[in-house]
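Budget justification aside, the reviewers requested a transparent look at the raw inputs and outputs of the sequence design task funded under Objective 1. We therefore reproduce one unedited record. The lines immediately below are the C-alpha cells for a 308-residue chain.
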C-alpha cells in the first residue's frame, strides 16, 4: 500500500525479493496540469509495469476492499506513504499484520511531513522507522530504525530521496529478521512524541521577523514544495537558496525584510535577527535562476522592503 514517489523504491525492492507481491493498493488517479487530466500515482505506474493487480479504492471501509484482500490472501501488508488510515478490518486481516515505513525516528515527527519539519526545526539527524501499524497514527510498536545525519545543505527534496532508499533497505532487513524470529517490537515513548503536520502553501510564506537561521532552514525544508516565498514589487518571489550572511548575528537596525546590500551577484535581507544572503530565486511567471542572472534584468535597491 503506497502512493507517491517515496514508496517506489520499496515496491521495487519487494519485486526483486523472494516473496511474491500479490497486489498493490494506491490512491485514485488525480487530475493535474493545465488540462486537469487524470494522472496515475507513481506506485501504480511501477505496479502496472510489472503486471501486478492494482486496486484504488476511494474509501477503505467499502466492502469491496475486504473482498479484494481476502482474495489476495496476503501474509503481510507493507504500507509506505499510502495516505489513508487503515481500519481494524484491514489491520487484523493478514497473519503477520501490517507494517509501515515512516520517515522519522519515531516517536519524533509523527504525521504527514516528517522530513520537512525535521529540517525546519533544526534537527541534526533523522532516519526511518519500521513499525507495526496500530489504531493511532504513527504510534505503533517499533521494529527497526536507522539513523542518517541532516547536512547543512539538505533540502526537503534531498532528504526525501535519501530516506526513500533507506526505507526500502531497512524494510528488507526487517523482513529478513522477522523470518528468522530475531526482531522484537518495542513500544514508543509517548512522552517523547512530536508531530509533523501536513505542509500547507501558507507555510512557505517567509516571515522576515524570524531569525535568519530559521528562515534559511525553512527555505531548504520547503524545497521543492511549497517553496519559501515573499513579495517584491507586487509579485510573488520564491527564494530557493540562501545562506547566512557573514556576521549574520551582528546587531542591526534595518527593518525586517529590508534589502541591506545589493551587488551584481546577490542581495542581503535583514531579518528579525541577523541577515540572509539570497542566492537563487524565481519570480512569478518566470523560471528559477541564480540571483546573478535575475539581477541582469531586475534592479533591487537597498532600502526596498520584501514581503509587503
Amino acid at each position: 500500500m503506497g502512493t507517491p514517489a517515496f514508496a517506489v523504491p520499496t515496491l521495487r525492492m519487494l519485486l526483486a525479493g523472494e516473496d511474491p507481491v500479490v497486489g498493490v493498493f494506491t490512491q485514485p488517479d488525480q487530475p493535474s496540469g493545465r488540462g486537469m487530466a487524470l494522472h496515475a500515482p507513481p506506485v501504480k505506474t511501477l505496479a502496472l509495469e510489472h503486471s501486478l493487480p492494482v486496486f484504488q479504492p476511494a474509501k477503505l471501509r467499502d466492502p469491496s476492499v475486504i473482498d479484494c484482500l481476502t482474495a489476495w490472501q496476503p501474509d503481510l501488508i507493507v504500507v509506505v506513504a499510502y495516505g489513508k488510515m487503515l481500519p481494524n478490518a484491514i489491520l487484523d486481516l493478514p497473519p503477520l499484520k501490517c507494517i509501515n515505513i515512516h520517515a522519522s525516528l519515531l516517536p519524533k515527527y509523527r504525521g504527514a511531513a516528517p522530513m520537512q519539519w525535521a529540517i525546519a526545526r533544526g534537527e541534526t539527524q533523522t532516519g526511518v522507522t519500521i513499525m507495526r501499524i496500530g489504531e493511532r497514527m504513527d504510534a505503533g510498536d517499533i521494529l527497526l530504525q536507522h539513523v542518517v545525519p541532516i547536512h547543512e545543505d539538505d533540502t526537503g527534496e534531498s532528504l526525501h530521496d535519501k530516506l526513500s532508499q533507506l526505507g526500502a533497505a531497512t524494510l528488507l532487513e526487517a523482513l529478513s529478521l522477522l523470518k528468522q524470529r530475531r526482531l522484537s517490537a518495542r513500544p514508543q515513548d509517548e512522552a517523547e512524541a512530536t508531530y509533523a503536520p501536513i505542509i500547507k502553501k501558507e507555510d512557505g510564506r517567509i516571515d522576515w521577523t524570524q531569525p535568519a537561521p530559521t528562515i534559511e532552514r525553512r527555505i531548504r525544508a520547503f524545497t521543492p514544495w511549497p517553496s519559501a516565498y515573499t513579495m517584491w514589487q507586487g509579485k510573488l518571489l520564491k527564494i530557493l537558496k540562501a545562506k547566512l550572511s557573514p556576521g549574520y548575528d551582528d546587531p542591526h537596525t534595518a527593518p525586517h525584510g529590508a534589502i541591506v546590500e545589493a551587488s551584481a551577484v546577490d542581495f542581503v535581507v535583514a531579518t528579525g535577527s541577523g541577515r540572509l544572503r539570497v542566492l537563487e530565486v524565481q519570480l512569478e511567471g518566470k523560471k528559477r535562476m541564480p540571483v546573478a542572472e535575475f539581477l541582469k534584468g531586475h534592479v533591487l535597491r537597498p532600502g526596498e522592503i520584501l514581503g509587503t
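DSSP finds eight helices and 16 strands in the chain. The longest strand covers residues 235-244. Computational costs for records of this kind are itemized in the attached budget.
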